[in-house]
């Protein structure tokens, strides 16, 4: 609907029904929000956003802000045209999308979420009145309100994205990010060209890392974590790109294994995912892709701070590719152990990592050998099959279960 077109007159009775409905959804609840987020991040066009934990969380926050802005307006001025939402969360989301090289098509997340919100809103409306004529008018006006509101919001954010893109284009960041994107995607660009644009050598060893936090994280904390990684690795320099407001992409010109690093003082809510070391251009690319995979697993596991490597999460990442299959695997393999005392799962996993050596297991857990033996008996009672008969599958399932527990 164009802004010049007259908005329909809303009778007082219809306005009151809309106000009551908006008041009912002022606190939408976790289930409704989950439906909204799943719809918004679904579909092939949203894969790049859904796969990036920071972009996905930024989009969720923007969706909630948009929903609550519409609700608040219809409590205050029910049925009237809602101005576009340019909340801090929505603007931050638009900025993040641009910095990742995404265009305004990614704003379709708002439109995809509209269908989920509309289904819930209809349920509310059917409880507002028994008069078919009143119900028809409420649905007619709010359908126009929601669709117009989203159209206006998307258009306003599109303008914000264009302005942000113009700002980036005037600096070197856009060129460096575009160069890295070409390298990671395997596009035809020479090493000499890429090195000149990045100011970073692409020959020799490389270890890539993703440093990120919640969407509102202080960028200084990300820099502190990246610098801590650099110093712990003993590297002289790093290539760092701002992927979005809460994410840094980092490459160290060194072969780094997180397991061998000295402790790194991590700022609150900052996480680091590290790929395996590689060499030359192929290693630059593969280490970064592995770090991205590790980031996704770490985020799904709910780890709020710390550092983890691709080697640590590779198995879990493969098992989690199909969530339903992973759930069935856990249930089939662990049985009652899956929801038993976490200490029992820790004993079982340590025992398997120590290749069935009870003495070493007790030493690793700082407990008595007899205690380990007693707990292993209890573990066998809870498992569908004894541990000794299904060790490989149980070990894989326990790794997956431990990561899901964060």
Automatic annotation (TrEMBL):
<dbReference type="InterPro" id="IPR025736">
    <property type="entry name" value="PucR_C-HTH_dom"/>
</dbReference>
<dbReference type="InterPro" id="IPR042070">
    <property type="entry name" value="PucR_C-HTH_sf"/>
</dbReference>
<dbReference type="Pfam" id="PF17853">
    <property type="entry name" value="GGDEF_2"/>
</dbReference>
<feature type="domain" description="CdaR GGDEF-like">
    <location>
        <begin position="190"/>
        <end position="297"/>
    </location>
</feature>
<comment type="similarity">
    <text>Belongs to the CdaR family.</text>
</comment>
<dbReference type="InterPro" id="IPR051448">
    <property type="entry name" value="CdaR-like_regulators"/>
</dbReference>
<feature type="domain" description="PucR C-terminal helix-turn-helix">
    <location>
        <begin position="345"/>
        <end position="400"/>
    </location>
</feature>
<dbReference type="Pfam" id="PF13556">
    <property type="entry name" value="HTH_30"/>
</dbReference>
<dbReference type="InterPro" id="IPR041522">
    <property type="entry name" value="CdaR_GGDEF"/>
</dbReference>
<protein>
    <submittedName>
        <fullName>PucR family transcriptional regulator</fullName>
    </submittedName>
</protein>
């Amino acid at each position: 609907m164009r802004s010049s077109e007259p908005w329909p007159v809303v009778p007082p009775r219809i306005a009151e029904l809309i106000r009551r409905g908006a008041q009912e959804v002022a606190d939408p609840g976790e289930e409704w929000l989950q439906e909204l987020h799943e719809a918004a991040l679904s579909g092939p066009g949203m894969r790049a956003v859904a796969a990036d934990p920071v972009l996905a969380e930024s989009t969720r926050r923007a969706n909630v802000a948009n929903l609550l802005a519409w609700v608040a307006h219809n409590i205050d001025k029910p049925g009237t045209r809602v101005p576009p939402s340019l909340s801090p969360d929505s603007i931050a989301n638009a900025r993040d999308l641009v910095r990742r090289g995404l265009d305004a098509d990614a704003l379709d997340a708002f439109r995809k979420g509209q269908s989920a919100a509309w289904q819930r809103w209809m349920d509310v409306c059917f409880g507002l009145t028994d008069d078919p004529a009143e119900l028809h008018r409420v649905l007619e006006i709010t359908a126009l309100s929601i669709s117009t509101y989203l159209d206006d919001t998307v258009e306003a954010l599109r303008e914000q994205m264009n302005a942000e893109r113009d700002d980036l284009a005037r600096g070197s960041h856009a060129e460096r990010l575009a160069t890295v994107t070409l390298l990671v995607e395997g596009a035809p660009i020479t090493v000499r060209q890429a090195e000149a644009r990045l100011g970073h050598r692409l020959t020799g060893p490389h270890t890539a890392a993703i440093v990120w936090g919640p969407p509102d994280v202080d960028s200084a904390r990300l820099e502190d974590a990246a610098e801590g990684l650099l110093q712990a690795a003993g590297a002289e320099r790093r290539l760092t790109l701002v992927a979005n407001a809460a994410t840094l992409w980092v490459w160290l010109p060194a072969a780094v294994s997180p397991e061998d690093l000295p402790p790194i003082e991590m700022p609150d809510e900052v996480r680091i995912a590290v790929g395996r070391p590689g060499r030359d251009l192929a290693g630059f690319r593969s280490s970064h892709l592995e770090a991205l995979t590790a980031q996704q697993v770490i985020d799904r596991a709910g780890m709020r701070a710390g550092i983890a490597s691709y080697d640590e999460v590779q198995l879990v990442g493969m098992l989690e590719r199909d969530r339903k299959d992973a759930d069935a695997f856990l249930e089939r393999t662990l049985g009652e152990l899956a929801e038993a005392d976490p200490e029992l799962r820790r004993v079982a996993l340590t025992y398997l990592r120590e290749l069935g050596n009870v003495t070493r297991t007790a030493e690793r857990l700082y407990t008595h050998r007899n205690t380990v033996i007693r707990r292993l008996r209890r573990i066998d009672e809870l498992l569908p099959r004894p541990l000794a008969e299904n060790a490989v599958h149980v070990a894989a399932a326990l790794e997956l279960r431990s990561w899901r527990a964060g």
